[in-house]
Design brief:
This protein has 345 residues and is an alpha/beta fold. It folds into two domains: 175 residues, Medium-chain alcohol dehydrogenases, catalytic domain (Quinone Oxidoreductase, Chain A, domain 1); 140 residues, Alpha-Beta Complex (Quinone Oxidoreductase, Chain A, domain 1). The strands form four sheets. Strands 3, 4, 5, 8, 9, 16 and 17 form a seven-stranded mixed sheet that branches. A six-stranded parallel sheet has the order 12-11-10-13-14-15, with helices on both faces. The relative contact order is 0.15. Helix 3 crosses helix 4 and helix 3 packs across helix 9. Strand 16, helix 10 and strand 17 form a beta-alpha-beta unit. The chain contains eleven helices and 17 strands.
């Protein structure tokens, strides 16, 4: 009797703090019918990985769990009935599971050497020399693209305010907003992050360690407010964001990292006739467009750090401690020398 092959993985067996992420060797999964086994080249981490580790009330995470939804890699094997793609094909994995949540949330993700995914979630890539960049796209840049354009209707010449501009989604909004011809005002908590946002192309930067950026935005817009304000922080910044929207403008939200129970002063809502628009996730077309932009060189995802899988706990901590500017990406130790240096090419 042959024992199952093993793989390196960052496993959560109990909910709790960072110490609950344990890197070790476990059995490699086998693809079920209609699935593919993907050898992971790179996996970006997101705030969802923090929430899944802590435990999410009302949304049970099956344990033991492996986080990580942003995955790029190569097709290693196919389950029965799976076809239409060749072994060895480089792929981006769309993390959204049709009607069943997300990889890294309801189902084990890519903070491992291998992951099984439905064949329909695979997007073939023509280039496997930039896997770290491709792995950075779905959750942050996909969310940013759909929120700004499909939901927010951002157009050239409009003023866009990005709250929490140094996070993954925030950086994506700054880059995509500039590429669309918007004037971008980026709000952040430190001068160091502000300098990076200016280098990235932000037209103006508001540094507000206390989160009170509204007055500076009001001054920068000559007391008119912005056409579009993005706020995915929630509770701590919502009131300031509401005050920063012009009459007839749009306030966009795709999350609430500081808390979900945000207070809305209704006077601003009716006096300024503000549209509040929620945005959830992305479409496959968003990912196709983003992959094309990366392949052509129009978009270079901002990478804060690339760490080996053995340091998965440190990768998540970069987000949790709010040190990250852009994406934090994890690469299996066995591939680190092969994959990680390519981000600096």
């Amino acid at each position: 009797m042959h024992s199952a092959p093993l793989m390196q993985a960052a496993v959560i067996r109990e909910h709790g703090g960072p110490e609950r992420i344990q890197v070790g060797r476990i059995e490699r999964p086998e693809p079920a019918p209609g699935e593919a086994l993907v050898r992971v080249a790179a996996c970006a981490v997101n705030h969802l990985d923090i929430f899944a580790r802590r435990g999410m009330p009302g949304l049970p995470v099956p344990l033991p769990h492996i986080g990580g939804g942003d995955i790029a890699g190569w097709v290693e094997a196919l389950g029965s009935t799976a076809g239409g793609i060749a072994i060895g094909t480089p792929v981006l994995v769309d993390p959204i599971l049709e009607g069943r949540g997300m990889l890294g949330e309801n189902r084990r993700g890519g903070l491992a050497e291998y992951v099984t995914v439905p064949i329909t979630n695979l997007m073939p890539l023509a280039d496997d020399t930039r896997m770290v960049e491709f792995a950075s796209l779905a959750v942050a840049y996909g969310t940013a693209r759909r929120m700004l354009f499909s939901r927010g209707g951002l157009t050239a010449g409009e003023t866009l305010v990005v709250v929490g501009a140094s996070g993954g989604v925030g950086v994506g909004c700054v880059q995509l907003g500039k590429l669309a011809g918007a004037r971008v005002i980026a709000c952040t908590s430190s001068e160091a992050k502000g300098s990076k946002l200016r280098e990235l192309g932000a037209d103006e930067v508001v540094v507000a360690p206390d989160g009170r950026f509204g007055q500076q935005v009001w001054a920068l817009t000559k007391k008119a407010g912005a056409d579009v304000v993005v706020d995915y922080s929630g509770k701590d910044t919502w009131g300031q964001s509401l005050r920063s929207v012009r009459k007839g403008g749009r306030l966009l939200c795709c999350g609430g990292t500081s808390g979900h129970e945000a207070v809305t002063d209704l006077r601003y809502l009716w006096v300024r006739e503000i549209d509040i628009r929620g945005s959830d996730g992305w479409t496959r077309q968003d990912l196709i467009e983003l992959c094309s932009m990366v392949a052509s060189g129009r978009l270079r995802p901002v990478i804060h750090a690339v760490l080996p899988l053995s340091r998965a706990r440190d990768a998540v901590d970069e987000l949790e401690a709010r040190r990250a500017f852009g994406k934090v990406v994890v690469v299996p130790d066995a591939l680190f020398d092969q994959v990680a240096p390519r981000t600096t090419a």
